[in-house]
Design goal:
This protein is mainly alpha-helical and 174 residues long. The chain is 62% helix and 8% strand. It contains seven helices and three strands. α1 packs antiparallel against α4, α4 packs across α5 and α5 runs antiparallel to α7.
């Protein structure tokens, strides 16, 4: 496999991708940008300026996975979410935008900061796809026995590829 990451200079990382892989990556992070669009903020002008949200737990299982409750107690979780979710969404959007902007076919050098953004964004994309596919620890066994005619096959292979990329990036960083 020629795609993936290797250590670069000064803590950076070298990324190598084919054009089709870049197209897939950009498509996936573009979906992430839409998914983690800025959330709802309060009606109060100060709350809007500070990005204070409503504090409601997401009903979408993917968003619930990306923005899990910090506390078991509903009231505490809501209060925490109210003050943090907007910033978390901004961070996820910034990471996805970094991947979108720096994903190139061929060889590209990523700074340490860009590599960290890639790592976080790849994790978010994997969490999203894994939640949609209801992935379990047996995912690799499932893929190995799955027929290529199975309509889920492309999504599972994409998930597996993202896992490989994330592992490749972690190894390149450490």
């Amino acid at each position: 496999m020629t795609s993936g990451f290797s250590p670069g200079r000064s803590g950076g990382v070298v990324a190598r991708f084919e054009a089709a892989e870049v197209s897939l990556l950009r498509s996936l992070v573009s979906m992430m940008l839409d998914l983690v669009a800025p959330g709802h903020v309060g009606d109060d002008p100060l709350e809007r300026a500070l990005g204070i949200g409503a504090g409601e737990a997401p009903s979408d299982p993917v968003l619930a996975r990306l923005f899990p409750s910090a506390y078991k107690d509903e009231k505490e979780a809501s209060e925490f979410r109210r003050y943090t979710e907007a910033t978390l969404r901004e961070g996820k959007r910034a990471d996805a935008q970094t991947v979108f902007d720096t994903a190139k076919s061929g060889r590209a050098e990523l700074t340490p900061e860009q590599a960290q953004a890639w790592l976080r964004s790849l994790n978010d994309v994997r969490l999203t796809l894994g939640t949609k596919l209801d992935v379990t620890e047996e995912v690799h066994d499932e893929i190995a026995t799955m027929s290529e005619d199975d309509p889920r096959y492309p999504a599972y292979v994409t998930y597996d590829w993202l896992t490989y990329l994330q592992d490749s990036l972690v190894r390149a960083l450490w």
